[in-house]
Amino acid sequence: QVQLVESGGGLVQPGGSLRLSCAASGSLFRVYGMGWHRQVPGKERELVASITRTGSTNYADSVKGRFTISGDNAKNAVYLQMDSLKPEDTAVYYCNVVVPTARYWGQGIQVTVSS
Q: What angle do CA 81, 77, 36 make, to 5 degrees?
């Protein structure tokens, strides 16, 4: 059983910053990478950013230059620093971890960007 616990979401004004954190625990014998997706009502879940065990990163075009993903392999943790937030970044953000046979998801955390 794998569990992911997310924290750090909330309400922020446009131009502000938030830092999301996620820690995975359980039967994690081999982790390929971790990442963040987001979803708004009526739309598909989309990739925000991901990071491999070796530190390679990937970002959605919409967040490049504003968001930074980082990880802590020893803790099976991943972080998302979100700067210069825009109203269109409003969504439920989901942490995930990729292992050889599956991708596990967190419960999701709300991020709202509004004045």
A: 55
Give the pLDDT confidence of 23-54 residue by residue, as tens digits.
Answer: 999 988 888 999 999 999 999 999 999 999 99
Quick check: helix, strand or coil at residue 32? coil
Distance CA 74, CA 28 (A): 12
* DSSP letters for 55-82: --EEE-GGGTTTEEEEEEGGGTEEEEEE
pLDDT at 94: 98
Inter-CA distances, 32 with 23, 42, 82, 93, Å: 15, 30, 23, 20
Q: Which residue has the higher pLDDT, 1 or 11?
A: 11
The dihedral of CA 44, 84, 35, 11: what is its sign? negative
Phi, psi of 87 (to 5 degrees): -55, -35
Q: What tens digit of pLDDT does each residue of 92-111 get?
A: 999 999 998 899 999 999 99
Partnered with residue 72 across adjacent β-strands are 77
